[in-house]
Amino acid sequence: MSRMDRYIGVVLFSFGLVICVKSFAYPFGSLRSPGAGFFPLFFSFLLMTLAMAIVVHTFLGENGKTTAVPFFAEKGGSQKVLFGILSLLAFRYTLPRIGLAPTTFLFVFFLGKYLAHYGWKANGALAVTAAALSYFIFQFLLKIPFPTGVFGF
Amino acid sequence: MDTIHNVLFGFSVILTPVNFGLCFGGVFLGTLIGVLPGIGPAGCIALMLPFTFSLPPVSAVIVLAGIFYGSMYGGSTTSILVNIPGEAASVITCIDGYQMAKQGRAGRALGIAAIGSFIAGTVGVVLLMLVAPPLAELAVKFGPPEFFALIFLGLTMLVYLSSGSKLKSFTMAALGTIIGMIGNDVLTGISRFTFGIKGLYDGPGLVPVLMGLFGVGEVLFNIEAPFKRSVFETSIRGLLPDRRDWRDSMKPIARGTLLGFFLGILPGPGNIISTFISYAVEKKISRHPERFGQGAIEGVAGPEAANNAATAGAFIPLLTLGIPTGGTMALIMGALIIHGITPGPLLIANHPEVFWGVVTSMYLGNFILLILNLPLVGLWVKILKVPYGILFPLIFLFCIIGAYAGNLDLFDINVMIVFGVIGYVLRKTGYDPTPLVFAYILLPLWEENFRQSMVISYGDLGVFFKNPISAALLGAGFFFILLNLFALGKSKKLSGEMGEAKN
Fold this sequence. Notes:
Number of strands of chain A: 0
Radius of gyration of chain A: 24 Å
Oligomer: heterodimer
Strand content of chain A: under 5%
Number of strands of chain B: 2
Shape of chain B: globular
């Protein structure tokens, strides 16, 4: 087990604790008629127990020594992943403002430029193609009602 | 005689232009996904789910099933030519398949993989057709205690057979059950764990969760590393095996088919496990085991047959009992539920067009795959050269659109991103998301059956043990828990001994 497992164990234990506390707000019922809080309470305890077992295992295994495996093995890996996540969030909050096709253009362009390191022309061509296809397939053919934004399409 | 009538009925369902076209589309897409490393069948099915909403249920399942077994075919192409498995069940094919390619026998390797897969897939479908109806008749006798016990067994067995640490897998299962409780309680309608967020009243949503875990999480994992992939440059010739290849391959294909089918029925990654076991069996019984790892055709034929037969076997518990054996089957189950069809013992009786339509589509799909995989090998090789830098933004785009298209709710994109980050972290840290997905999808059914069992037995927990079927299933489930604890104890002892040896 690695040191990361210790942190994950703590996070899962905390999550289980929150669920456990919240479970008391729901009717527990009885064995004759289990209520909405019955399963959540049981499984939150189970999750806390298992999470604690993971944490304890990281102390007991290999004489308490954990492997310090770096989470990001590749140089620049953390930036790439963070950029990917931020791009997704940017898409989500840009979509209702400018619509699907322009959002797709910006999304594909910036991902291609900063993660795949393609040139401006190649990125531009790919982004335009993706935007046109996404509009044609999803809005025109499949008629999925996306927000239209300021451009009206 | 009934079976023949049913098969003919199934063909009448599948041989319409729309369903035939969808079957073709599904297997083509599945092969493409199998060829391209970076997204597996689960991710592709999750991506395609929203686009099947407008289709009739049988058509939707035909497409998704086609993607599943199509990807088994496609994965072998990448394993043989690039030494990178296109999907997890093709890992073993890399060992001897790539060696065959290096020796100028890539065509033979691809040919035997395709033909072996066709034979195994077809036999697997015949067995599915014969085994499923009697099993469904037995399962009609199941009540809430039996279903509760069956899901419990499925979960414990899945944890035991999943990759990596058993403790981590159990934790994932517990986490999945809790996530499954978010939203309105099935029996009382009380909102649980929504924290006032309107978008969570119906739960996080199956599609955004799956898109996040399998689609976004996978891509985030892949973009971390440099995008480099070299395709083995060789001319592909001689796709048909010669007499000697046939002689060496027929028995491994036969053994792989039976092994794969029965392992596919069990919860867990049957299509992956069956390939490893098939390879081990062939190596064990071979007169020349030293040839394995050096380009032995048996090392390709057996495992490829096993993984295709396993996909047919995996449909049995799903269609007859309503129990998915793994993440991909869970997705197909989700698709059926979204279409208002509950897989289980009554599926064959209430929706024969779904069951027999899907079964006969698998016959047809296997045939289409043989045609696709042999002459179109050159096309797959070209596709392998499409840079991942072009693919991954498109995969992201499909995930976002798929997550939104279900409920037309932008909040579902947020859910997808959250689960994408979770899926990425799980992959990085060796936590298998399959038990999480399994538990998440089955939790409503599991909880409902438990609570119903308690109501009908007036709170007597003995109801699970008084009935022989549920007692046997629960007993088997506890047996797997003991096996998990034993495996955990063994790994601790081993790590302790290693620690002492180092000192």
